């Protein structure tokens, strides 16, 4: 099934399942248990007699403290999701809405379903604008076919943000929808979002980004698992706190709010994130509709995924000074800090992977040898309960593949941190909408090098001795190798090859099922 076809299919995922009240109760109970287990673990960890090599212990304590902060933020956010009923709010039925679709070199076959579907949206007087920074005559013809306005800039300064700001100067409708070129909106998009604008202080209404190709592409499936966790429990909880931020597409804006802050910030790689900070600091509110109202495409190869993650990481990390300086309520400031801090988590992955290597080659370890054997007793329950909480919050959508993909790209966060500190300006890169055919080992080279280092350490350790300490660290190294190889596998086999393999297995299973049914009928 092609990318175009899957975007026209019915979504198979709901951001807010029907059993949300019961799930929220389970989350609250799990969070209470998590807090007790975290207190038990950390009260054991921070005692002076636990210190092995001071430097390594300091790194362990820093990594565990960072992860605890992220966990506390996740628990807080997850239980704050308010009760939401899928109902159409009263909305201004005669409202004028401009729909902006920015493009920059995307194929016509990717963009056309979006333009066509945007023109069919019900509930308002819709004018679709195709904002072409790629200067394509084919895009101009596409706009003409669907009675859309076509806008081309002479200079492409400000990337996507500049393109949208230029369109704001050429249009007048009081409401504006922004759609990425690959996100096909449902006809009910405006009917489900415009009602929130009856509150005059609401600046924007965000809806989920749904990767419709997650079922036909392994890498898109892993990337979708990450998105599903965010647009499920996390985004719903942020809405309960009043901290929903704009995610760049599938969003409805009030033009008055955009005009009040001078439009989209053009110097940021994540213009949507910084726009949200500015709007919230000016007293504007935001809303989130936990219902899939547009079908898009996730990255289909590792190069696309890495490019996307680098842009998000550098943009959010660069926003730290703005979060500090801007006048925000404490709850919003903390939420923005938590969202930006996620892109530092690659450092903790590097720290954890380094421990078995250092221990095997040097004999040094973060914990004192006399107490190291007690570590799993205290850490294990805390870690297992944390994973269970994520699984419950994700409702089964967050997968091991999504976790492994993030872990294998730990280096993206490290590189983004260093480039942000060095104030190296980044370039806005549009995430490619179609994956490449072949393998892309260069895109996962840091993870492959770390895998080689872990395997080398494990082999060296086993060659030296088979003591319990060595075997424990070899097992720890093996666990990291398994996670890394799971995360990089789509890049090694090729996105399209992996997708074809999955289709072959699906067809084989279907044929096997038909054969089994035939045998059963004959036997009957």
Would you write up a description of this structure?
- The protein is an alpha/beta fold and 524 residues long.
- The protein has one domain: Spore Coat Polysaccharide Biosynthesis Protein SpsA, Chain A, CATH 3.90.550.
- It is 59% helix and 8% strand.
- The protein contains 21 helices and ten strands.
- The chain has helices spanning 3-6, 20-45, 54-78, 108-119, 137-145, 159-170, 189-193, 218-241, 255-260, 271-281, 302-318, 320-325, 330-341, 345-362, 369-372, 375-394, 400-408, 410-421, 445-464, 468-493, 495-523; strands at 96-103, 125-132, 149-152, 175-178, 184-185, 202-206, 210-211, 251-254, 285-288, 294-296.
- The strands form two sheets. A seven-stranded mixed beta sheet has the order 3-2-1-4-8-6-9, sandwiched between helices. A three-stranded mixed beta sheet has the order 5-10-7.
- Strand 2 (125-132), helix 5 (137-145) and strand 3 (149-152) form a beta-alpha-beta unit.
- Helix 17 (400-408) crosses helix 20 (468-493).
- The chain is globular, with a radius of gyration of 25 Å.
- The chain starts with a helix and ends with a helix.
- Residues 513-518 and 520-524 have low confidence and may be disordered.
